[in-house]
Amino acid sequence: MKxxxxxxxxxxxxxxxxxxxxxxxxAAPPVMKKSGCANCHSLDKKKVGPSYKETAAKYxxxxxxxxxxxxHLTTSPKVMVDGKEEPHSxxxxxxxxxxxxxxxxxxxx
Amino acid sequence: MLKEKWSAxxxxxxxxxxxxxxxxxxxxxxxxxxxxxxxxxxxxAWTNTESFCVSCHEMRDNVYAEFDGTxxxxxxxxxxxxCSDCHVPREPGxxxxxxxxATKDLYHHLLGTIDTKEKFxxxxxxxxxxxxxxxxxxxSLPCRNCHVESAMSADLQSERAQSxxxxxxxxxxxxxDCHYGIAHTEPEGPGPQELxxxx
Lengths: 109, 199
What we know:
The structure holds two protein chains of two kinds.
Chain A: H1 2-18, H2 30-35, H3 52-58, H4 65-74, E1 78-81, E2 84-87, H5 96-107
Antiparallel strand pairs in A: 1-2
Helix pairs in contact in A: 4-5
Chain B: H1 2-12, H2 18-46, H3 50-53, H4 57-67, H5 83-87, H6 92-101, H7 103-111, H8 117-137, H9 141-144, H10 159-170, H11 175-178
């Protein structure tokens, strides 16, 4: 009885310590590795393009955020890089769910 | 003591001259020394293998798991980098120094300094900074051991890469200043460009 109570208490303690699940702590979706996003984008620092935190802040509270970003990551729109216009790379996937997962992750940073 | 040993040796070969005995002892010593050198080199080579590095779960479950799927792990041509290609110097002097200093890894493994995901995440930025610092001190030599700038073909490199590299040269940046978070998950916080290298 005593050992059972201790086990239950330990389980609750472990769950409490695990903390709230949040996308910020979650790892980036694997398709981002494949797509080479890190070549230009950092988590919170300046690389060639805006950081994910910057993008998340820019779109905070914006209802169109998901749609805009999905378009951005799948249609290769032109972007300005150091005064030069060039096409933005697209995610290397044809799976809509994968794209949405990436957008959700970015917006949660 | 030596005199006794010499007499014992002479007794074993009554017809052997002094020169012969000296040569025999010398040859034997050479064999032993050679054997020790070979064993030492083999041991050092073993500590440079991928399987050795990931035999510690701290590496296998964190940075190695993140490495999987990145361009240095698998790509079109199959030419890949392993842990030691980027994290262990190739020159003999710095290599030996790195191996001696790596005993701190054993120390921290025994202490359990980063033996859980939470502990590792808490130290991620510090560990990354250690690596970035070493890379900046050698002008990203681990990168340049394979990525030779003079061998980069302008025809095959994208326009963006060429303009970014020109910019980096003008701003006196080294590879790691931009190419971080490529092999392992990028930590939050100041990056290589923000490091105070005077410290």
